[in-house]
Design brief:
about 210 residues; Rossmann fold; 10 helices; about 10% strand
Amino acid sequence: MKKYVITIARGYGSGGRTIGKMLAQDLGINFYDRELLRLASDDSGINEELFAKADEQLKKSLLFKVARKVYKGELIPPDREDFISNENLFNYQAKIIRELAEQESCVIVGRAADYILKDYDNVVKVFVHAPLEDCVNTLMEMFGGTRKEIIKKIESIDKRRAEYYKYYTGRDWQDAKNYDLCLNSSKLGFQKCVEIVKAYLDIRFR
């Protein structure tokens, strides 16, 4: 099988990150999530903390709600005042994602990787979701807290992810047309989600 990349977008509490790690382990390939921040920091020379602050979120100004900076691949040079802007931090992460797709098989979680790699023919784009009630139960088991607190957190994080995706791609984060597979982890369970993605890989690339 040639090199391939599995990108995973996921609703908070759906287990998408866990499924991604399970996939990477089963397939014997690397898993990238927050590791991308360190790689982008090393490549750009920009402090990793700045990448972490900008990670999958946008400033809540009117400008950010109205403007769109759909990703086109350009990097801002270090001599520009906006070298450490959120847009350029995203661009450096995107550069790392593209390089990984060209160098190795891997699983990449979040960061609009499906859009960044939309022109690559070796990419399997997955969206993992689950009903709110199941996400709430999962997160309460993991972290505790009240049902009201957990719902508020899910709504906040999913809203932030959707805004981030829309801002850099111009697309709806939950639109099934963006993905090859949309998996309900509550109906299937994590292991069956892994098996479905592996079966899809086998059918498509073998």
